[in-house]
């Protein structure tokens, strides 16, 4: 079994109230791979420049991730993003985006990447996502992320690829924007009508919600007293979520499988934000993940004990 | 057993994307009482003007609520609030606030209101909240709400009353503002150090979280495809939460009691937002509440099935 992820491999400059990094390993495919590598063999697909350090390629290879599909463009520069977060980390400003090698990126998948069991299309142009869907050999589960930019400038193409995947993973504000529906449940139901069988709404510090035809499921973000850098949290969530699904394909992607995957995504994301960039998840252990998933198991639990309400007596 | 609530009884003018009301029954004590009345006898304490309609007093008496402590100031006018909500109902603008009879309000509690088992101090001046704490005969459980205004202009007095109650119920942004801590868990822990044994963070459409010394608990808002008017949702939540606690005082206010109360608060609030003002909760039935609490029981549940993560093999 294997997972192919197509998306950015990047260098990030990040400033938060708790510190800053001038140039750290980042990118959606990177964060996704570091999380999903706990569950299965991951193959990231994406370009880097000649400036991409060997040490960072080694980080990408953590837990067996195969980097054969990372295309090194020797005379190009790696995608670069710079941003700064506000006081409570709920707002962030993009200070700089340099597409660099991504400007002319044409995805080429190796046979092994094409033969994946699970495909994650991280946030890139919808047209590229469509090309990749054309290129893979019918994976058992496909999930897709996107962003407000593509809703603004390439909505039709985006809707076209959403129609072709099993699961859409998007920020809740983007789900509203995409559908024009202010209500999250209504927005998710609309998208379920387009084709996907599951919609995951990422809600930042409030956690995430899953909506399928038959289920609503939600988990809070894992409660942390110290959050240092949210960069990559969404992609780390996706890596834990999609990775967990990949481990349970044999019985079909049931709601039970998806709900459990939400817990793994939530746990993985909670580690990501504890330190800058990839620092925490790179050295994360399986025991640490199990511990947080077990804790999450109790966070929404209460004992039902039907009281006699006044209305019952009438 | 009985619950005393001190807070506003009001008329509201509300405009949402789904309609508007020029003058509808509202106020924190009103919404609280309508919800809490399912659980116990409620005594709202607060002033109204000579313009307060008998029909609205009747609404307040729904499910046995005792209005002996509603002080009618014949030559005064009832508190009035006007507001308008944005597209996704997450933002609202206050267009008008007329304190009217609340400007000179001095709470006077009847012996029955003083002898309450549970006290809820809705959002009013902290000095008045302190006077009421002085006046009651040691209720078994006390909870308090407040708002950003009092954090801005009367923080010391507010902290003084928070130190004296069992439970603080506040919007999450206000918890951050009150403590100066951007992190919700850290903010709640700080407040637990002041005296309360429980902190409830209201998170609007994202639900609510409960933090005690030993527990973290969270529930999403009940998923609705149609939300019409969020006015009073927080006080309706408080009514369900505090009401449920009131029903289980005999065994002590354990974390189990508080977690279950979160579910009742969440369920009650979800009905409140389905229609304008008090319209939905006034005609709500106990069966409808039970049904939503049962559904909430499943929203954060997943089956633990420890997979073999890559890190486990090393």
Summary keywords:
homodimer, 314 residues, alpha/beta, UDP-N-acetylmuramoyl-L-alanine:D-glutamate ligase, 4-stranded mixed β-sheet, 13 helices, 13 strands
Q: Please write the CATH class name of chain A.
A: Alpha Beta
The stretches of 5 or more residues of chain A where confidence is low (pLDDT under 50) are none
| Count of individual domains of chain A | 1
Number of strands of chain A: 13
**Average of the residue pLDDT scores of chain A:** 95
CATH superfamily of chain A: Ribokinase
Secondary-structure element order of chain A, as H and E?
Answer: EEEHEHEEEHEHEHHEHHEEEHHHHH
| CATH fold assignment of chain A | UDP-N-acetylmuramoyl-L-alanine:D-glutamate ligase
First-last Cα distance of chain A: 59 Å
Q: Kindly report the oligomeric state of this protein.
A: homodimer
- Biggest interface between chains: A-B, 62 and 62 residues
What's the total helix number of chain A? 13
Helix content of chain A: 25-40%
Sheet bearing the most strands of chain A, described?
9 strands, mixed
Q: Largest sheet of chain A, order of strands side by side?
A: 5-4-1-8-9-10-11-12-13
Computed CA radius of gyration of chain A, to the nearest angstrom: 19 Å
Strand content of chain A: 15-25%
């Amino acid at each position: 079994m294997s997972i192919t992820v197509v998306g950015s491999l990047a260098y990030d400059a990040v400033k938060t109230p708790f510190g800053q990094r001038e140039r750290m390993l980042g990118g959606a495919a990177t964060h996704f791979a570091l999380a999903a590598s706990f569950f299965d063999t991951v193959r990231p697909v994406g370009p880097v420049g000649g400036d991409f350090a060997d040490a960072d390629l080694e980080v990408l290879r953590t837990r067996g991730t195969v980097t054969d599909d990372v295309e090194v463009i020797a005379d190009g520069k790696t995608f670069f993003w710079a941003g700064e977060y506000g006081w409570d980390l709920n707002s962030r400003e993009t200070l700089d985006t340099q597409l660099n090698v991504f400007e002319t990126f044409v995805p080429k998948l190796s046979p092994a990447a094409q033969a994946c069991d699970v495909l994650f299309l991280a946030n890139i142009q919808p047209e590229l996502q469509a090309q990749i869907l054309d290129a893979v050999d019918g994976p058992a589960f496909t999930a897709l992320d996107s962003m407000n930019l593509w809703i603004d400038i390439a909505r039709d193409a985006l809707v076209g690829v959403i129609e072709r995947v099993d699961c859409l993973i998007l920020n809740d504000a983007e789900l509203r924007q995409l559908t024009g529906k202010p209500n999250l449940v209504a927005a998710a139901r609309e998208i379920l009508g387009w084709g996907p069988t599951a919609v995951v709404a990422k809600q930042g510090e409030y956690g995430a919600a899953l909506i399928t035809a038959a289920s609503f499921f939600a988990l809070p973000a894992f409660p942390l007293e110290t959050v240092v850098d949210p960069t990559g949290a969404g992609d780390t969530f996706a890596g834990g979520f999609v990775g967990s699904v990949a481990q349970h394909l044999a019985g079909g992607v049931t709601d039970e499988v998806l709900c459990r995957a939400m817990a793994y995504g939530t746990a993985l994301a909670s580690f990501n934000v504890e330190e800058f960039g990839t620092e925490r998840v790179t050295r994360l252990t399986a025991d640490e993940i199990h511990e947080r998933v077990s804790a999450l198991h109790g966070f929404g639990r209460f004992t039902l004990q039907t009281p006699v309400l006044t209305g019952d007596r009438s």
